[in-house]
UniProtKB/TrEMBL annotation:
It holds the Pfam family ABC_tran. Residues 7-251 form the ABC transporter domain. Keywords: ATP-binding, Nucleotide-binding, Transport. It comes from Aequitasia blattaphilus. This is Urea ABC transporter ATP-binding protein UrtD. GO terms for molecular function: ATP binding. SUPFAM superfamilies: P-loop containing nucleoside triphosphate hydrolases (SSF52540).
Length: 259
């Protein structure tokens, strides 16, 4: 762990009734970086995200969040919604935007203090909120779609809207579960460029199988295998590692095994 650590995962073990999904996992995530977790199916990647956001309880070990201007927060043992309130957001693989609402209505609904759909439709946003929403929509290239129904957006645009809906809450960390799943190469590339733009505002943790995408934007890659950290470093180091090639890359475990 160093001074720029935003999240420290320390000796985390998860035992599901005798099956060890994670064993003494240690990872330090640096602030304003894009940090990937990769590895074969069943390696424990999703379980690790579940631990960070308290969806799953660790059998042992702990996670600590180091906010920028506040004291450290021990995440272990906290309620899921409290972790969101601390500034750690998560986006799941399937987009969960409100398809019958416009892009802007979806954004207003995501503002921290707005509780219901009806409240958000009739809510008058402040000038400051409007400026912030417009800036975020611009960053995800949806500003010109702001009055369109979310349901009319292409798959990739829905994913970008959901990322935008996370950003409107000004999180310090966002976790993304396979954000490029179901996208073609141009959309995947554009998703990467969007994420590179927003890492100035927050730290991005991603579980992903698409190695082109990992190559394009990763600052750090942690390879998990059978619940343990196999290797951690930059993408070149990971790609060149023989064991990683044997257990993951060479087995066609990712979508671009030919690269
Ligand atoms: N609630 C649970 N109870 C029992 N076993 C579980 C539970 N959740 C996950 N597992 C097991 O833990 C292991 C790790 O699962 P996890 O979903 O974290 O893997 P993953 O690396 O995300 O895989 P994938 O790439 O397929 O999504 C798997 O063998 C899975 O079957």
């Amino acid at each position: 762990m160093t001074n720029d650590t935003v999240l420290n995962i320390q000796d985390v073990t998860v035992d599901f009734d005798g099956f060890c999904a994670l064993l003494r996992v240690n990872v330090a995530v640096k602030r304003n970086t894009i940090h990937f977790f990769i590895g074969p199916n069943g390696a424990g990647k999703t379980t690790l995200l579940d631990i960070i956001c308290a969806k799953t309880k660790a059998t042992d070990g702990e996670c600590t969040f180091y906010p920028e201007n506040r004291s450290p927060v021990k995440l272990t043992g906290m309620k899921e919604y409290k972790i969101v309130g601390e500034g750690i957001g998560r986006k799941f693989q399937v987009p969960s935007v409100f398809v019958n609402l416009s892009v802007i209505e979806n954004m207003v609904l995501s503002l921290k203090d707005n509780k219901s759909i009806w409240q958000s439709i009739f809510y008058r946003i402040s000038k400051e909120e409007e400026k912030s929403i417009n800036e975020i929509l611009e960053a995800v290239d949806l500003l010109d779609k702001k009055d369109e129904k979310a349901g009319s957006l292409a798959h990739g645009q829905k994913q970008w809207l959901e990322i935008a809906m996370q950003l409107v809450q000004k999180p310090e960390i966002i976790m993304l579960d396979e954000p490029a799943a179901g996208m073609g190469k141009p959309e995947t590339y554009k998703t990467g460029e969007i994420l590179k733009k927003i890492k100035d505002q927050c730290t991005i943790i991603i579980v992903e199988h698409d190695m082109d995408f990992v190559k394009q934007i990763s600052d750090c890659v942690t390879v998990l295998h059978e619940g343990k950290v196999l290797l951690e470093g930059d993408c070149d180091l990971v790609l060149a590692n023989k064991t990683v090639q044997e257990v993951y890359l060479g087995r066609g475990g990712e979508r671009n095994a030919e690269n």
